[in-house]
Design a protein that fits this description.
197 residues; mainly beta; Porin; 2 helices; 53% strand
């Protein structure tokens, strides 16, 4: 009985908080400058685009779940070399901290889980010779700054650091020492827009 009461209390409290908060659906789009650390690949330019739900919990804090497509990887540094093109579905949880309640300047901080669209777990199961070269997922942390205008448009600059070694078979195929982790590092610059509902 006590557990049911506590569960009911937390559910009612959660619904009350989200009912009082202002939620807005939005889109994000911009450019990636991606690099694979500890490889012989140069940085490459890609694209990111996605959707988010901004949940304004207080005047100075917004919780923002996100889902996006992100093109990352690296560009061959030698002529006739092989470029690395990785397409991710990125699921992130951005925390936006506003400097002042009535100003748009804010800091962004959060984690993301990036699923490799081409070399994922389904392909690993269906692949008879187990020849996946890039790890199926990447866990990343991101941080950045932004400015949000009153009419819903925001400018953002983010830095994203991958935490999982991309070299699935430790082959050292993209150069560098196979004992060093080859990690994603991305600088994102772009726009976000929140729709008024």
């Amino acid at each position: 009985m006590k557990k049911i009461f506590l569960l009911s209390f937390f559910l009612i409290l959660s619904f009350t908080i989200f009912a009082q908060s202002k939620s807005q659906l939005g889109i994000r789009i911009g450019a990636n400058n991606a690099k694979v650390l500890h490889s012989q690949l140069d940085s490459k330019t890609g694209l990111y685009a996605g959707l988010f739900l901004a949940v304004r919990l207080t005047d100075s804090y917004t919780l923002q779940p996100e889902i996006a497509y992100s093109n990352q990887g690296g560009k061959a540094s030698i002529r006739n070399g092989e470029n690395l093109n990785i397409n991710y579905v990125s699921i992130g949880l951005a925390n936006k901290f506003f400097v002042s309640p009535h100003q748009g300047f804010h800091f962004i901080l959060g984690p993301s889980l990036d699923v490799n669209f081409d070399d994922n777990f389904i392909n690993l199961i269906n692949d008879n010779d187990n020849s996946l070269e890039i790890t199926p997922i990447d866990l990343a942390l991101f941080g950045g700054i932004g400015y949000e205008f009153d009419f819903g448009l925001a400018l953002e600059l983010r830095f994203k650091q991958g935490l999982i070694d991309l070299d699935f078979n430790d082959s050292g195929e993209y150069g560098g020492n196979s004992e060093e982790n080859q990690l994603n590092r991305v600088i994102q610059i772009g726009l976000a827009y929140k729709f008024n509902m």
